[in-house]
Write a structure and sequence with these properties.
By secondary structure, this protein is mostly helical. 52% of the residues lie in helices and 6% in strands. The strands form two sheets. The chain has a three-stranded parallel sheet with strand order 1-4-5, with helices on both faces. A two-stranded parallel ribbon has the order 2-3. The N and C termini lie far apart (40 Å).
Length: 219
């Protein structure tokens, strides 16, 4: 399964759902944050290859994962589908204004709160910061995320491009509030006897960022 949705569209909940359905690890931004910072330069290389017109040499990068969703993998959904033609694509979506507020209050908040603290002694964080700036804030959002109209236009354009690119049988446009039924029907999986995951709400994310910022001053 390949995810094509932007961050803050329920990708963390989808990650948990896919790991229940497939019993293996789903690659997500959280995968990198959990300690795989060595992947950051790899994703920068993928990005550079894509921006140069491709092809992207994924090698065996994704062999240990049953699915890959969320930024940075979602930037490469078309190329990943070429490499894995039997895969299906899930585009997570939500209301545009709610998406912007959630992203501004969490992901962009973390950028403003933490990036200036990640200096030379935070080697792994510097790798992470470099990837985020290159691919997301300076790349995908062209250094204009604070411009709400631009950011929402970019978000809606991305979603429209995904829908226009993929045939209906390959794509599920999905809101995590819909729960198991549409996802399992699309993937041909039985509905699990557990509630659909609901994780990574904005309040918890902000609390984690504030904790990390406070701890950084001790180093």
């Amino acid at each position: 399964v390949i995810g094509a949705g932007c961050g803050r569209t329920g990708t963390t909940s989808l990650k948990a759902a896919l790991e229940i359905l497939y019993g293996g690890e789903c690659h997500h931004m959280d995968t990198i944050k959990a300690g795989h910072f060595d992947q950051c330069p790899v994703f920068e290389k993928f990005w550079e290859q894509q921006q140069a017109g491709g092809p992207i040499d994924f090698g065996n990068f994704y062999e240990d994962y049953t699915s890959a969703i969320d930024f940075p993998s979602s930037f490469f959904y078309k190329e990943l589908l070429e490499k894995y033609p039997n895969a299906k694509v899930v585009l997570t979506v939500r209301d545009s204004n709610k998406w912007y507020k959630s992203t501004l209050d969490t992901l962009y908040y973390s950028k403003q709160k933490l990036f200036h603290l990640w200096i030379t002694k935070f080697g792994n964080m510097l790798l992470f910061k470099s990837m985020l700036m290159k691919l997301i804030w300076n790349g995908h959002y062209e250094s204009k995320f604070e411009d709400k109209a631009f950011a929402i236009q970019r978000y809606e354009k991305w979603n429209a491009e995904v829908k226009a690119t993929l045939p209906a049988e390959k794509l599920l446009v999905f809101e995590v509030a819909q729960g198991w039924e549409p996802l399992c029907k699309f993937l041909g999986k039985p509905i699990p006897d557990v509630p659909f995951p609901n994780v990574n709400d904005s309040k918890s994310f902000i609390e984690e960022i504030d904790f990390a910022a406070n701890m950084s001053w001790w180093f």
